[in-house]
Amino acid sequence: MPRRLVLAALLTSLAACGPALLNSVDGVARLGAGPGRVAASVPYGAHPRQRLDVYAPRRAERLPVVVFFYGGAWSSGSRGAYAFAGRAYAGQGFVAVVPDYRLVPDVRFPAFVQDGAAAIRWVRDNVARYGGDPDRITVVGHSAGAHIAALLALDVRWLREAGVDPRTIKAGALLSGPYDFLPLTDARSQAALGNWPRPAETQPISFARPDAPPLLLATGMADTTVRPRNSQALAAKLQAAGAPVELKLYPGAGHADPVIALARPFRGRVPALADSAAFLRRHAQ
Q: Is 223 among the catalytic positions?
């Protein structure tokens, strides 16, 4: 087998092992150079899951900010396993914040969205000390994290309840996210969202509005976990409302590919990092 095919197969198998190993491979690829973590396990609330890490380039000053929400069906994940995402956006000239949030089954909707809003409040109040510009806060999310980021960007109640002006979020880049998936037929979505008495309020598409912040919706066309129609439907609804939106469809890419592509060894899979960073940089004004 040609060497390049062997390498491709190896990288694919490593990626399939999950974010913790993916994070380790990314760290090895960096060889200690470039931007890194500048704050760890900072509390933004009283619960043990309400902690965040901050990543920044060296000599950061008044840089745009990315708050990254990882996926895991609202029931799994940890900020440490997604250090590669924080390093990726810091390497693109952002101060990147990766928060944990409370998970199912300990909580159900809307607790994890409320945690996201509380994390945004912390970023607004504190990111300047790490070189970030509190007037240029953006959000990125993958899968369930994209659902959280989308609701924060579109449903103004969550930021307002946290004491944050909804206009604080200047733009968002949402990867492989579920935005329009009623009825709740999947056991994981039922566990996370099925308690809410008004199901439409769990769906980001319900809150498409003309004054929404600019959103990039990126997804793999071969995603069988969260179907591409979620991104397509939300993009169409935002466009019809007159809101700024951009849709990126990656041919042959699956559900995890856009987030895997944030890690240094996998950036050739799909251009999710370059696409999202360029979009956020352009709109974080």
A: yes
